[in-house]
Amino acid sequence: MAETDLYPPLQRLFESEGYVAIPQFSFVHPLFKKAEKYSPKTDLAAFRWNDCDEVEAVAVEVKPGSHTTSPLQGIPQGVTYQLLFPLAYVAAETREEDLDFSRGVLEGLKLGYISVSANHAQIVLQPRPSERTMKSDFHEMTRPAGVLVLMAQTFLKDKLAEDFACNAKSESFWLWTRQKDRVQLQFGIGEEFTYFSCYSDIKWVCGAVATRAEPGRIAALLNEIPPQYETQHTCDHVERTNTRKLDYECTGSEYCRFRHNAQEIGTAMQHVTQWCQEPRRLGTLSFCVKLWKRDRRITRQEAEERVLGVLEPMLQLRKHLNSLL
Length: 325
Description:
There is one protein chain. This protein starts with 6 loop residues before the first helix and ends with a helix. The protein has 9 helices and 13 strands. Strands 7-8-9-10-13-11-12 form a 7-stranded antiparallel sheet. A 6-stranded mixed sheet has the order 1-2-3-4-5-6, sandwiched between helices. It has helices at about 5-15, 30-35, 75-80, 100-110, 135-155, 205-210, 215-220, 260-275, 300-325; strands at about 20-25, 40-50, 55-65, 85-90, 110-115, 120-125, 165-170, 175, 185-190, 195-200, 235-240, 250-260, 280-295.
């Protein structure tokens, strides 16, 4: 059985316990890069709020196979996940009665174990908090990422027909609505702030929006954002760095920040229109609202209030920008 065939029952298991579960959760980190033969993605990550207003985060390494030793194959990745996730599991097709000596190894490393098949998943061993977990990295990266996943589940999934996709890096984190040929709604973590934005780095999308934009209309929509929110709207001149993939990097020479007025928006749109006409280059668009400081240990109520306060203006802005396509 393919590994990916085991993801759905694991998702259902964690969702039945109140988690938001995401397969192939990319969590690139310098410590992961040192172990190059291991994937930088956790096979599954799950987040939920507990009764103490704290984010519970777990990671699962999945290994197909029902042999007695199959669970042992997931240990290298499992203990790596423990660096950033307080609780980590190994999941395999091995039944509980066939664990044999694998049980003792897993228990000794404080890893949980899930017996999984194509239609069912059952927790056999509960994980325990590991002393390997780097608490500073958890609070600076894993917890904030979990908060945004939970915010996206709460506010975006019920309001949009699209699902959301997630990606993460050691210095930033973002998740966005999946329909990539449109302007996206994006949560992200930058160097200093957690933010919520309307964003696109698809060349034809940015070019079409910039060419057809009505600066006055966009300014009116941006002015619906409550004044207590700090904003940072930008367009960046970026260059294609890989001819086979949609990978871009800033040229370092040109970018434009603009405020909520028609003149500055018009100037920014002119830049994007020009940049999108250049071969292998484009101008990206980002209408960004800062939610809270990255290092703030925000509570569930605070996070929901901050997102809810700006959600409707951002939904309307995205709707208008996509109407230009």
